[in-house]
């Protein structure tokens, strides 16, 4: 998974997080290869597997229930998006491409201040919540993915009122919803899980 606050196609000073998987089977250490070098905490049985990989020797396997990664420290500034432009992109290999509430990435402080980007059935979606009201949908669109195939996903915010989500370079959802994500700044950035109704990532490789 890679997070940028601009749109480069290589590692540079704009890259806030870069997680590769290029190691041996069942390895569990997760490293941030960006210049920021965040500590990444592993939960459940999240591990590198060689059975599926898009690049290098391996990919990261999530079992869909207890497996997820947390980027430390809480409130890391590189993942505090506010109203700024940013990009999150990753390669995924879903074993259930149309499963319900499969979280790709999230920031979550409590039930009142959070956002989540993920797959819900046939759609790829993003929601946010401020305070203890209901969730606000930022966008939704049919993702067109099938199980047991690799896909490149990208969440791009051009401005506070311009969002695009891509699957293999094809726009699948756009939005002009005005969103300020500042309320979630003190929370941790999580990959594959959020502790609200979105739950786990499904049995996916990243």
Overall description:
By secondary structure, this protein is mainly β. The chain has strands spanning 2-4, 15-18, 39-43, 47-49, 59-62, 68-72, 86-94, 102-110, 113-120, 123-130, 136-142, 151-159, 162-167, 170-175, 188-191, 193-194, 199-200, 204-205. Strands 1, 2, 4, 5, 7, 12, 13, 14 and 18 form a nine-stranded antiparallel β-sheet that branches. The termini are close together. The relative contact order is 0.22.
End-to-end separation: 7 Å
Number of strands: 18
Alpha-beta content class: mainly beta
Largest sheet, in brief, is: 9 strands, antiparallel
Order of helices and strands: EEEEEEEEEEEEEEEEEE
Round the mean pLDDT to the nearest integer and report it. 85
Quick recap:
It contains no helices and 18 strands. It is mostly beta strands and 206 residues long. The radius of gyration is 16 Å and the shape is globular.
Sequence-ordered SSE layout with sheet pairings:
Layout: E1 2-4, E2 15-18, E3 39-43, E4 47-49, E5 59-62, E6 68-72, E7 86-94, E8 102-110, E9 113-120, E10 123-130, E11 136-142, E12 151-159, E13 162-167, E14 170-175, E15 188-191, E16 193-194, E17 199-200, E18 204-205
Antiparallel strand pairs: 1-2, 1-7, 3-6, 4-5, 5-18, 6-15, 7-12, 7-18, 8-9, 8-15, 9-10, 10-11, 12-13, 13-14, 16-17
Offer a few descriptive terms.
single chain, 206 residues, mainly beta, seven-stranded antiparallel β-sheet, 18 strands, globular
